[in-house]
Structures are given as structure tokens and as C-alpha cells.
Amino acid sequence: MAWPVNIGTAASLSGISPKMLRHYESLGLLGAVARTDSNYRQYSLADVHSLRFIRRARDMGFGLDAITELVGLWHNRRRSSASVQRIAQKHLDELGQRIAALQAMQRTLGELVCHCPGDDRPDCPILDDLAAP
Q1: Residue 102 half-sphere exposure, CB side, CA atoms within 13 Å?
Q2: Whole-angstrom distance, CA of residue 26 vs CA of residue 29
Q3: Tens-digit pLDDT profile for the chain (133 aa)?
Q4: Which one, of 110, 112, 109, 107, lies nearest residue 124 by Cα?
């Protein structure tokens, strides 16, 4: 492959849509992207590698603020792994809280479904629960 590549190719290679690629660029997650005389973006192999990093971090559920920090740490060879671990641990804790909340919702809904007769009568504990103050 001939480098640099255009936005469509960079998007395809990184698994990020061109729209999100532009968004990440506008947020400063990528360094300055080279442009042609016609002002078309030209992405290097390093840019595509950064985009893959960002996509993987998004796939793991990191928010944009955390990704910004992680990208900065990834590019900083003088970083401490403790800084990276702190960000990852915070995210892990938040995931645990979200999982616990989802499991509680699942249990509650499961109980409601079990108590709903599912017949032609209008009485429904699911609707009663949803309508409760």
C-alpha cells in the first residue's frame, strides 16, 4: 500500500467511519494530519495506528476523556504505567457499577415477567410497577 492514504482508506483500515475519524481529529486525538495542496487529508501509517488504538479503546468502553489521556500516555515514552493503570482501574470500577445496575434491572424485570399472567385480562404487574411513584 502506498502511504499516505486518503480518509476513506484510513477509515477502512482503522475500522472507524470517516465521520468519526473527522470527529476524533477535531477533538485533537490525532496530531496534525497532513493535507494536499487541494486540502485533502492524507493519513500516515502512524495515523492509522493511532486510529486503531482509539477504536480499540472505544470498543472497551472508555470515554473520550479517558481516551485522550490514554493516547497522550501512549505517545509519551516517559509515562509511568501507574498512570495508565489508574485510568483503567477507574473504568473497570465504573463497568462493575454499570454491570451491577444492569443485573438488578434484569432481576426486577425477571420477577415482574414471572408474576404477569400474560393472558387476556388487563391486570399486569409490569405496568403497575412501571406506573408506581
Answers
A1: 6
A2: 8
A3: 899 999 999 999 999 999 999 999 999 999 889 999 999 999 999 999 999 999 999 999 999 999 999 999 999 999 999 999 999 999 999 999 999 999 999 999 999 999 999 999 999 999 999 999 9
A4: 112
Lookup: cell for 96: 462493575
Q: Is 51 exposed, middle or buried (0-12, 13-18, 19+ CB in 10 A)?
A: buried
Widest CA span of the chain, in angstroms? 71
Evaluate whether 52 touches 69 at the Cβ level (below 8 Å). no
| Residue 118, phi-psi category: left (phi > 0), alpha (psi -120 to 50), beta (remainder) | left
| Dist CA 122 CA 133 (whole Å) | 20
Which pTM does this prediction carry? Answer: 0.85
